Batch of 2 targets.
Target 1
Amino acid sequence: MRTTEVLFEPGRQDIVVTRTFAAPPDVVFAAMTDPELIPRWWGSRRFETTVEVMDVRRGGLWRFVTRQRSGAGTPYTFWGVYHDVVPGSLIVSTLQFEMGGPGHLQLVTDSFEATGDGGTLYTNVSLFQSVEDRDGWIPTDMESGIRDSLDLLDGVIGVTR
Amino acid sequence: MRTTEVLFEPGRQDIVVTRTFAAPPDVVFAAMTDPELIPRWWGSRRFETTVEVMDVRRGGLWRFVTRQRSGAGTPYTFWGVYHDVVPGSLIVSTLQFEMGGPGHLQLVTDSFEATGDGGTLYTNVSLFQSVEDRDGWIPTDMESGIRDSLDLLDGVIGVTR
């Protein structure tokens, strides 16, 4: 059973998520960067995600709209920019919740490392503008959302490889 | 005499720069975001800066090329994206050295606060991807470059207000 680790270290301003997948880095990277597949895993089962733009290259924009599947279906928009894209290995990008006030920007580093058994160790570091900004996310259901999203991605990878 | 404070706290992953200007926030903000004025202060006296693009609005790109005035004149390109732009008050953007390897991305928060005497307290927080990444900048002449650039900006503001 592959599990997702979500690490919040006290006093730090980042959240570190790790997860192993049974497919090699190029396959995991390809699945995560495919706009067609995003609605199948990004945002967890609770949200329906639409990709407005996803231009995975240096300087390219991404912009996703999510709606809660139950309830009012208010749209929540997230967007950012790709700063580094190294196929099969690394993505450095930004993530911002568009309707929030200014700030609350995250700098996200996704890395993909081959494991000895042909799998991938995926690490996601989300760096927040301050410790307070990060700590504001901890009481939310972000952690269960991450676990659920990566479980969904695991299923998507199982199908596509 | 207005001075620039540059603060590197041990173990943190940011650099905090503060400086007061004798002009109000809207004037300082307007000077800093004017592409025509960038070559007169950005990058310090040691470098000649050319603005390739500077689209100061959410999602807009900026890209500057600098060349050392003495020596070989090798071009160094810096670029990033504006995430928040609140006129007279706040800019949140990214900054990356284009020719470096991946990573080394900075998340930059510029804030402009009115002081009681009609001036501005300018604060610049540069957040790095790690403490190590930040610490790599400390032995460089970055600090003197910041002081020199903000002194030049002070002169530019003195002329334009």
Target 2
Amino acid sequence: MSLWFDLIKENPAGGRRGRIHLPHQTVESPVFMPVGTQGTVKAVAQDVLESLEAEIILGNTYHLYLRPGHEAIRRMGGLHRFMSWPRAMLTDSGGFQVFSLSELRKVTDEGVQFRSHLDGSSHFFTPEHSIDVQIALGADICMAFDECTEYPAERARAEESLRLTMAWARRSLDHFRAHRDEVVWREAFDGRTQSLFGIVQGGMYRDLRRECAERLVEMGFDGYAIGGLSVGEPRELTQEMIAEVLPLLPRDKPRYVMGVGYPDEIERYARMGVDMMDCVLPTRAARHGLLFTSEGRVNIKNRRYAEDQSPPDPACDCMVCRRYSRAYLRHLMQAGETLSGTLNSIHNLAYYLGIMQRVRGEMEEQGPGNGD
Amino acid sequence: MSLWFDLIKENPAGGRRGRIHLPHQTVESPVFMPVGTQGTVKAVAQDVLESLEAEIILGNTYHLYLRPGHEAIRRMGGLHRFMSWPRAMLTDSGGFQVFSLSELRKVTDEGVQFRSHLDGSSHFFTPEHSIDVQIALGADICMAFDECTEYPAERARAEESLRLTMAWARRSLDHFRAHRDEVVWREAFDGRTQSLFGIVQGGMYRDLRRECAERLVEMGFDGYAIGGLSVGEPRELTQEMIAEVLPLLPRDKPRYVMGVGYPDEIERYARMGVDMMDCVLPTRAARHGLLFTSEGRVNIKNRRYAEDQSPPDPACDCMVCRRYSRAYLRHLMQAGETLSGTLNSIHNLAYYLGIMQRVRGEMEEQGPGNGD
């Protein structure tokens, strides 16, 4: 088996304290996964991610396929080795980026024709091709190729989109099963290999979400994601969709909500029973000077911090808060210094990872007992 | 005394293995000083500089005066505290940047009127003001306000420029002596305070250089710099000017050549008897993808490195060379990732600091005996 999930404790509200055993790392869950789009979590070096105790990070298939190319990465031993990241990794399917970044998309049942946002070159992605690319990259967890339904979407549009996602999920899984043993690091890990997660879509229609979840579970993926959220809908709707889907997913498989969210959101969803989350928010906001702190959001560009010698977050003991002041971080931002994005990102990631650490600790303390 | 210099060993060729005792740090010399223009060595965090064993870094008075402002920095406890750098620091006088970066300069005997390159605001720098700003910043070593003679310069122009530099050196020293005890950290360091170095100018005229050196030595600075080099002249001329000046400088004071140079240059000048050097080259070149290695210069953008899995410098054991490949560094550069500048800068600084470390070691081994 390439992935197994230990349910250490289950709380009355549904929260799960678990452990996801992956070839490169055993990941304590619920877990927040920093996003490393182009083979780097922007502005943060790998040794710093390790010291922040990040156990799993994301790579973006669309970006890495275009540059440096998945075949080059395979030849160099896979993404772990290419970027020197020894812990766990997950790649998305490329689907979301094809829809959000590329140009001149043409979607058919077969797949998606698109032009690269980098150089306008023409490409064709199918479920099979997405899986081939992900096997070349060699992350511990791959994702099925799906269509992310936009928001808002009419029911007919959501149904059609779901039909595509379901067909592509089937093809993704079949192709993955036929080729998963080809991952470059398999022998070094005693024959263990990659895992594949299915993605629940269905727009904001509860019945479509249910239908999707049930059919994916029948197919038997290694884990299940809920996609198509945080696409502009109100938060209540996000939460409603998650609450609708979670009970339908197998208790012994990891559950992943993609692309969320703000600190209060990741905490809430973790307590509802979501095991994995990822989001560009902590790093992207950091580069724009927005810090998440125990005292709320701090826009470090604000003039009021010009001579503020207190740490970014007085309650935080990350390497940035232990060493630098708000005034210094503001200065770096004002001066356009690269170190600004680095230090802000390190703090925000520490804050996000710290939330999950705290939630895991609280889950261990409370609840009716062992989930096993 | 605020600075004292231990001459541990002197070599036949003139090279000096020494120790510069400064309030914040005892610096092993000859030493290379990374440049931290705006209160940060670009793209490299302070803890990384520490792990690279950088013992002294530069700050640029012109930049810090304009942003965030020297008074703000003084109120926050000085530059060491502001940027959280506990080791030694040196500030330049602002003179060079006023001449190279600002607009609409007007030079009189009194000082220099100029407009900020940031917002066009008008400013007036005198020797006294430069010293006031440097005392507010609070580096361990301050520099006299000078005029950097351009290259090429006619003899009459070089003489006039030298006249200004000499008058400004006198005024810098008088003002410094009257106010040096005002540095904000003085009490915390048992009454020790900042030091002031004079700067030898004189263009490429040997007799002017000699005259300048002799008169500065009469004034009695804490150390002596040779400025106005690496301004476009051929290397032979740089070396000739250094060779001309060094024998005139007191044996028991540190000697600093400003703004040089390439790896072979800093090694050569160190062996000639230069104790301190600084240059933006290792960090600036790094951001443009140029790595200095034991195998020569590596332009990491080059296509030939696309799948090169060897380390940037096979003979280097810095944190970058131990962990990452040329292919990965090339990818980061191609993808426009911030981490590119960071990792390239770390390696180049490690390379420069490593040269000085090696030279110091060799100086200890060889030579006729103890310099004391």
